[in-house]
Amino acid sequence: MVGWTMVEVMIAVMPFHGHVAPLAAVAEAFLTAGHGVRVYTGAAHADRFATLGARVVTWESAPDFDEHNVPATFPELRGKKGPRQMLTNVEQLFVRTGADQAADLTRAYAEQAWDVIVADGLSMGARFASELTDTPWVTVSIVPLAIPSRDLPPPILGLSPARGLAGRLRDSVLRAVTRAATRGIQRAYSEERERAGLPLRGFPLDQAFISPELVCASGVAELEYPRSDLATQVVFVGELTRPRASDAALPSWWPDAESSESPIVHVTQGTLNVDPHDLIEPAFAALGRQRVLLVAATGRADDAGLPFPAPPNARVAGFIPYDALLPRLDVMITNGGWGGVLAALARGIPLIVAGGDLDKPEIAARVAWAGAGVNLRTGRPRPRAILAAWRRVTADDSYRANAKRLAESLGGHDGPREVVEHTMALLARRRAPEPGG
Predict the structure, then answer these.
(1) Which of 110, 235, 274, 404 has the highest CB neighbour count under 10 A?
(2) What is the pTM of this model?
(3) Cα–Cα distance between 189 and 183 in angstroms, integer?
(4) Where is the Erythromycin biosynthesis protein CIII-like C-terminal domain (predicted)?
(5) Do 121 and 415 contact (CB within 8 A), yes or no?
(6) Rounded distance, CA 419 to CA 217, Å?
(7) Dihedral sign for Cα atoms in the order 47, 48, 52, 53
């Protein structure tokens, strides 16, 4: 971009593996383009960004935590699943840390000013820091858009768009119910704004995680429900992380995958809620007698063992490099992490999605709506539901055809590079003189 040779960028990342991976790709793209990059995240992920060449600012005023034991820092989350977990998670972890995140960020700004803050879409601290420093803020949405719409049900329920008058009435009622259910979050947001020294009449809660100038949304328009009121600052950028040649060791059983004459079905528990009883165990029960090779990832590199026996046709590891695995897959059974879902769809792999909590029911619903997979409508499916879904996906060619259609659309993007380009265009617009000025 003419006139911008180098800028100083602050990237704010919530300290979860699923957030760190896409924002690390964005940080690398800014560094490759020659810009100065600092990253604000948890201490556990500092090395990931330092290795890229970024300078790291860790959570200090904000309560840093272990993503594998979040209740140790936020005890309010203990024992909660489903919608209750989502509401408590948003309030305690994302909203009530906002003022403390902003304190960390504004100290970093005082030490060296940034030109723009590029943030994980769930970083409340970035919103507050942008207001406090009067600097531009770019949202990078690493999950499906959660922007409310008059045309859609509330974005936390995993429901597809309504059809007809009765459906629209349903969505209207649900929007009212959701407003009531989220009063605690709204109260927390007001209290955090006050703690941060910001006016209470600032941006309302439904705009709190959305930059008013630029939202770079991972995914493609074909995975977004049609709506008449989509914010004009939203741009779709495709995948933010793409599997590439990895130095990670392949499991000792990998030759079985390379030589398998049976279709390979991958079962992934994700990296956050990793109880193998939720999805891996019923998937083994469903497909343990079928002519497939089951390849399961527990999401724990430090503990790949299972508390139950694996069937003879199953192979298990903590993590498996996707650059090696994905080209061999026939079907993926997933808990619905957005990064893994996009990785599979970008290679035309149909999905079976068991989305149980947080954003995952919404992801499962979108995959089914796009015709690229089956939504099991629970995070703890029964074996017979998984078996029926697998039979549907393998017997009906439309699932694979729709996955390939989405792969073509995703293949037209270079997400990290596009985030850099859109950010630089925003800064150029801000620099441009007013007409007639």
Answers:
(1) 274
(2) 0.89
(3) 10
(4) 310-426
(5) no
(6) 9
(7) negative
Please, which residues have CB within 8 angstroms of residue 64's CB and are 6 or more apart in sequence?
15, 42, 43, 44, 58, 73
Domain boundaries of the chain, sorted by first residue? 8-239+414-431, 254-410
In the structure encoding, which two tokens stand for residue 179, read together? 């407003």
Q: Which two tokens stand for residue 117?
A: 């803050």
Q: For residue 406, give both structure tokens.
A: 């989405």
Residue matched to tokens 């008449």: 228
Cα–Cα distance for residue pair 355/67, rounded to 1 Å: 19
Find how far residue 329's CA is from the centre of its chain.
Answer: 22
Whether pLDDT at 331 is above 80: yes
Comparing CA positions, the residue from 33, 36, 35, 43 lying closest to residue 13 is 43
CB 381 within 8 A of CB 363: no
Q: Are 10 and 134 in contact (CB under 8 A)?
A: no
Q: Which of 55-69, 278-292, 352-366 has the lowest mean pLDDT?
A: 352-366
Spatial CA neighbour of 324 closest among 395, 398, 264: 264
Ranges of beta strands (E only) in 46-160 are 55-58, 116-120, 137-141
- CA distances, 379 to each of 231, 335, 376, 384 (Å): 31, 7, 8, 14
Q: What is the pLDDT of residues 163-192, one digit of tens each?
A: 778 878 888 888 888 778 788 899 999 999
Determine contact, residues 198/128, Cβ cutoff 8 Å.
yes
Instruction: For helices 383-395 and 397-410, give the axis angle rounded to 10 degrees.
Output: 80
Edge-to-edge strands of the sheet including 137-141? 55-58, 36-41, 8-12, 116-120, 137-141, 214-218, 234-238
For tokens 């650059």, the residue is 323
Q: Helices (DSSP H) in 263-396: which residue ranges?
A: 280-287, 322-325, 338-345, 360-369, 383-395
CATH class of 254-410: alpha beta
d(C-alpha 336, C-alpha 355), whole Å:
5
Residue 44 burial (CB count, 10 A): 18
CA contacts within 13 A on the Cβ side of 278: 25
Query: Which residue, chain included where needed, has tokens 């059809």?
Result: 163
How many angstroms separate the CA atoms of 84 and 281, rounded? 24
- Among 64, 79, 202, 231, smallest CA distance to 141 is for 231
Structure-token pair, residue 242: 């793409």
Quick one: 176 exposed, middle or buried, by C-beta within 10 A (0-12, 13-18, 19+)? exposed
The CATH topology of domain 8-239+414-431 is Rossmann fold (3.40.50)
Token couple for 172: 């209207």
